[in-house]
Amino acid sequence: MAIAVRFPRSSLYLHHFRRGFTFNFTSVNNSQKQFIVTTPRRNIMTNSAAWLTAAKARPFEVKPADTYTPAEHEILVENRAIGINPSDGSLQAFAWLPLKYPTILGQDISGNVVAVGSGVTRFKKGDRIVAHAVGMGSQRIQDNAFQAYTIINEHMASPIPDNLPYENAAVLPLGISTAACALFQEAPFLQLHYPTEPAQKPTGKVVLIWGGSSTVGSNAIQLARAAGYTAVTTASTKNHDYVKNLGASEVFDYNSSTISEDLTKALQGKEIVGVVDCIGGNALKVCVEVLHKVQGKGAIATAKGGVDDPPEGITIKRIFGTTLKDNAVGKAIYVDFLPKALAAGTYIPSPGPRVEGKGLEHLQAAVDRVVKGVSATKVVVTL
Ligand SMILES: NC(=O)c1ccc[n+]([C@@H]2O[C@H](COP(=O)([O-])OP(=O)(O)OC[C@H]3O[C@@H](n4cnc5c(N)ncnc54)[C@H](OP(=O)(O)O)[C@@H]3O)[C@@H](O)[C@H]2O)c1
């Protein structure tokens, strides 16, 4: 039975929306409004989002969002944890990508499948998954992470083991995608052999990964190792054990005044199949210098850029971490590699999560936390 309730729209509407009530909104007269509470029960498909209402607006506003229906090769996911990336804060602050507002940010989710498209064979309702929400690439509102439900391309999701908590899984997506774009996409990226589980036999060939304790670097080290390459990396001394545990063979302190010489000496005589620069700016300059001195040629994939005119023989290619969704690398990672490696426990979602809070309303603080800077840590919000 419908119950008529009169109250100011602003406060109680939101309160009841959050509690899962459904409202019909009807005009009573010109000055007053009436809400009819028609469904006093939890509607599990009710969506809400942390909206970025305009360019450079803050804080995010938690408000209703559409509920989506997955197309043929898509799944609808009830998000249980959302990972935060540096781009979330920089996009909010600087609006460096042209976006249509209001919009929703975010790329990293883990959660439960609640609906599947007609062509989906890998997933069913109830499956626990981790996935890369590719809204930055697709520019569709339903493909973004900062909401209760997100549409995911089937081939950009992996099932997760029962013993992997959602918050640990949510650290993965943009980090592993960006590292995979750098390492495995066709030239001018590094175009290396794909990773496998069990790992490929070591080739002895070296990848230099600058910034091994970053999220992108932590994934680049593990992917390189699984693909049979030797990962040489840089990190603060406090994170040397951390990157070695992920599989780095050697690690150097990037704060050292002799970092360029140290790397040059360590890499001399080795075959360098490429460089992944996870930091950019001066870090990229040193990467160019080292590669030029040691080998005179080679490919550098950079997450950030900062050098426009490398010496002849050195190529620099900027990564855009969602491009793998449109080439063979997306499937190679999320379909063929990650599910097996997570199940075997040989791929450790890294860096470990720091949970900032539970609920979409904690996303602003979580984004602000990442903007302040983190060390070998991934900030996550649970839902
Ligand atoms: N192009 C793309 O598609 C794409 C995708 C993802 C990320 N990114 C960009 O890539 C960068 C890394 O992202 P993320 O999520 O991996 O960052 P993150 O995890 O937040 O990075 C934090 C880490 O960076 C390390 N670091 C800081 N300055 C460094 C330096 N000069 N040399 C070596 N390591 C340094 C710190 O190491 P210590 O604590 O050991 O000092 C820290 O552990 C960001 O600028 C991000 O915007 C780009």
UniProtKB/TrEMBL annotation:
InterPro entries: ADH-like_C, ADH-like_N, ER, GroES-like_sf, NAD(P)-bd_dom_sf, Trans-enoyl_RdTase-like. PANTHER family: HYPOTHETICAL OXIDOREDUCTASE (EUROFUNG), ZINC-TYPE ALCOHOL DEHYDROGENASE-LIKE PROTEIN C2E1P3.01. Belongs to the zinc-containing alcohol dehydrogenase family. Monomer. One of its GO terms (molecular function) is oxidoreductase activity, acting on NAD(P)H. This is Zinc-binding oxidoreductase CipB. Residues 57-381 form the Enoyl reductase (ER) domain. Keywords: Oxidoreductase.
